[in-house]
Amino acid sequence: MKKLLTIAALSTVLVAPMSFADVNEDLQNICTIVKNNDKGELRKKMRSVKRDYNLRLGDFYNGVSCGGNSLIRYSMQNASVDVGTYMIKKMSKSDLAQAEADGMAIQQWAETNGYIETEIGKELLDRLN
User: Fold this and answer.
1) Which value, in Å, is the radius of gyration of the alpha carbons in the chain?
2) Which tens digit of pLDDT belongs to each residue from 31-89?
């Protein structure tokens, strides 16, 4: 019985990191998709991650960094309007209002860096209000 529990515990430990590695592999080119403003490709990527790992955008959003910025910030920097507004619509208001790695929420960062008046910034304000 003790051997069985040890094997079960070991298999759990060995399988979990592999699934995270697979998610990272599947999300590998998401920054390129955002930069190219390819909404269709982003939708396909999000569908496959949802299907394969049962993760929504809000679940993996904080774990993805593009040039040191989150996906929405990166879309603002690259004027990727279609992708940026799509991601804002797909995320919950509470996820959008959370502080990111630098301690600033997306809205605060956009105001500080002059992106709040862009189409993506306006979409963010509409969604939060």
Assistant:
1) 17
2) 999 999 999 999 999 999 999 999 999 999 999 999 999 999 999 999 999 999 999 99
